[in-house]
Amino acid sequence: MAAVTVPADVRSPTWTWWREASASVADLGVLVPIAVALIVGNGLSATAVLLPAGLTYLAAAWLYRVPVAVQPLKAFGAVAIAAGAGVETIAAGALLMGVVFLALGGTGVLDRLARVFPVAVTRGVQLAVGLTFARIAWGLVTGPPAAFQATLAPALALAVMVGLTVVLLRWPGRLVLVVVAAGMVVAAVVTRGAGAPVWGPSAVALPHIDLATLAAAATLLVLPQVPLTLTNSCLAPADAARAYFGPRAAAVTPSRLALSLGAANVLVGAVGGMPLCHGAGGMSAHHSFGGRTGRTPALIGGALVVGAVAGGAGLATLLSGFPLPLLAALLVVAGLTHVLLLRDLRGATSWSIAVGVGVLGFATNLGWAVLAGLVAHVAVARLRRGER
């Protein structure tokens, strides 16, 4: 039997469980703000929010063996928060997303699409995500969400964010776990006036969904999200996995990603939790802080499951005290890592399409930006064929 070759970065003496644990918490900048807003503002159970996320992370560790991220559906979550959508509407939207992506993943059509999808357009999607992370980070420090208790003056929060970003960029795999642990201590201090810690899971009530709720969820939440999820949770993560992990990421295909996020959202809809995806930016976050194996998603998945079951009843209060400049710094580092995926582009045409898709997707709508990028790619290809 042929010997199994272990990648150099995995067998290096510096490659330790500490770095994998550090990488596991790298994507909290996206998960925590949306989770807290949905729990506090929309009435979702903390256990229903965190338990499916943790179980999906554990499933990703087993299925993919590399750091595939589990994130909230960002556009879906933003609209739900802004509209004050109730548990039933959010659950209905999650169920619809689950059914759509189980169907897409089961047909294999996404793998065929990935083979012909222009690299420049994929890189544009990744640029848009990186820029969006920076915008979310800016919003966290200059206009803190109302659900958070520990807020600083914008100038001070910005200075703290910049300082933490420099530290995390300089020592990504060594200090992030310490910094996040310090953030939890700060959160405990800030929220100590809320009373003694409450242990055990929060109540989970199965949602009651009718046809009217499904129709409202489809229009309000699902239709704007599907194109974004196709590109940023199926096509882009599979591409990023190949760039980061090479042959070890062979299992990370668009169709498999669609199947796992589809199954996750069926579970989410059944318990009234937070809709989930496999965001490409989350993969960059895990990679940027040293994640290279399935240990990374397994560690954060286990932590979320334990937190949901053992402390779900009090976790919403604790997380509302988490320092926002730290979450913002994690987002900035992940965004920078994601943007660096553009380094493999060659030629002015590819760069123009990627930058155009990225800027347009960041400024307006990523679905329309992808469509514009595809049109530009086809037009350039036809022009080149005509010149021959």
Question: How would you portray this structure in words?
Answer:
With 388 residues, this protein is an all-alpha fold. The protein has one domain. Helices cover 74% and strands 1% of the residues. The protein contains 17 helices and two strands. It has a two-stranded antiparallel sheet. The radius of gyration is 20 Å and the shape is globular.
Give the number of domains: 1
> Over the alpha carbons, how many angstroms does the gyration radius reach?
20 Å
Task: Tally the beta strands.
Answer: 2
**What is the overall shape?**
globular
The order of strands across the largest sheet is 1-2
What's the average pLDDT? 87
Low-confidence sequence ranges: 1-8
Backbone structural class: mainly alpha
- Percentage of helical residues? over 70%
Largest sheet: 2 strands, antiparallel
| Relative strand content | under 5%
How far apart are the termini? 51 Å
Short overview:
With 388 residues, the chain is an all-alpha fold. The protein contains 17 helices and 2 strands.
Keywords:
388 residues; mainly alpha; two-stranded antiparallel ribbon; globular
Any chance you could write out the topology, listing elements then pairs?
Layout: H1 8-11, H2 17-24, H3 28-42, H4 46-64, E1 71-72, H5 74-83, H6 87-107, H7 109-116, H8 119-142, H9 154-170, H10 172-190, H11 211-245, H12 254-271, E2 276-277, H13 280-288, H14 295-319, H15 324-339, H16 348-363, H17 366-387
Antiparallel strand pairs: 1-2
Helix pairs in contact: 2-10, 2-14, 3-5, 3-15, 4-12, 4-14, 5-11, 6-11, 6-12, 8-11, 8-15, 8-16, 8-17, 9-10, 9-15, 11-12, 11-13, 13-15, 16-17
